[in-house]
């Protein structure tokens, strides 16, 4: 189908969506994180009867009021852009999940009103402080519900899931699709985003405290920012430490249900690499630096308190060890080069973290600022590569086959027809008769599997590292080796096995 | 030519009621709804650190507390309703 599409001058369609998406990510994620941090600060202040935490909470809530508004306005810009630039895809998605989006909109209203009341009634409720804290704390379940709902749709766009659910789209499923919503990546996306947003909020508040500490002169005021920054930093770190674990299982989901996105991410293909930089790789460099800085901070704190070890530092070491063990045991995806770079950067950052605290006479202000900057960059890069990894809609009118295969698009959307007018009764019955829970095999995935490089990478790394394949020297035995792997349970067609053997015997790169 | 040097203002006397001063934290005057961004001198900030100005419940304005209670009730009810929708949506998926 050829159709005239809207051209956005200079930016183009893809980067228009990218601009609004990244802008929204920057402020909306911070908004969610700030709600949690403000609640924590208010509770700490109330329990200790220490006004400083409450004052900091109030200042952060003012920032929250500002960025919440910006975040929602940018979200509207994103919706408008998608409606104009990808009209068929977007209207299909809107009709498919209409009720989900209506509830989402209702939560926007609840959030805006709750946030406004919480900030502007701050000084009016000193006789009802617990009620005021409860009012602010209500923002957290509201935000959780909001991205629970939007993640169902976001996850569906990457991993549409099960054939039965998709087939029912042809049978005019409208407003709510249970199987589509609870798609394979939904749970991990939700968990990862929840923890990541709070970590981002915590590190950002700590960074603001660090900056204000820098420009303060009086000792008590400096201590105020130091203590407030530490509280936010600890809260952020508690969530940050869980991210590699959730991220690991998220990657496993992508491996099986969004294979092209997975291959793009892990081996730096497609739009993940831009301007000669692998942005996914760079994101993990920042993550390693953040873990290193945290390690330096906690080690230094433990020394100052005369403790033999710091529990958070033990957590970081344990996590790193378990992570490596899992990777080694379950098929290490990253290369050794990547691994050693990460390790080197983490260790250098750990040294830098300790040095910064010592250089600033025990204040973590510069470390907080650095962590804030790195967490911002990590969130931005995470948002970019997540979208850049998915298959592109090259033709904006018709090429969204990964999400809505042509035979499964709603015929009621653009034309005045019902499904019965377009499909025969037999076709509709056949679509409904498909077994539920059966994974769909898309055309794009088939093409990917016809590539021997992808075949080798995906199938071999399921059980062991690619290094193991590369280190194997007896090249004339590949046929036997592949047969053995099939005997161990590797699922390959004869044609796929032949392609793998030919590629390995020819000693071509992969 | 008159001396244009402004006279140095005498330092403000310490507030008699530190709690009241803290209560008015950052709000110049009584315009509660157009609260300017409070920009404090560090000395002013320090003065506010000490008291945690809890008040008696009767000191709060009744209309404000009623407004918040009504809103909290509505929001809690709304959250419960949305959770109920999610649970129902899990069992009834829209598939015929």
Quick tags:
heterodimer; A: mainly alpha; Cytochrome Bc1 Complex, Chain D, domain 2; two-stranded antiparallel ribbon; 23 helices; B: 96 residues; mainly alpha; 3 helices
Which helices and strands occur, and which strands form pairs?
The complex is a heterodimer of chains A (510) and B (96).
Chain A: H1 12-48, H2 51-85, H3 87-96, H4 98-120, H5 129-137, H6 139-158, H7 163-170, H8 178-181, H9 186-215, H10 219-240, H11 243-257, H12 259-266, E1 273-274, E2 277-278, H13 279-304, H14 311-330, H15 336-359, H16 365-389, H17 419-422, H18 425-433, H19 443-449, H20 452-460, H21 466-471, H22 478-488, H23 494-505
Antiparallel strand pairs in A: 1-2
Helix pairs in contact in A: 1-2, 1-5, 1-9, 1-16, 2-3, 2-4, 4-5, 4-6, 6-9, 7-18, 9-10, 9-11, 9-16, 11-12, 12-16, 13-14, 13-15, 13-16, 20-23, 22-23
Chain B: H1 18-23, H2 42-49, H3 62-91
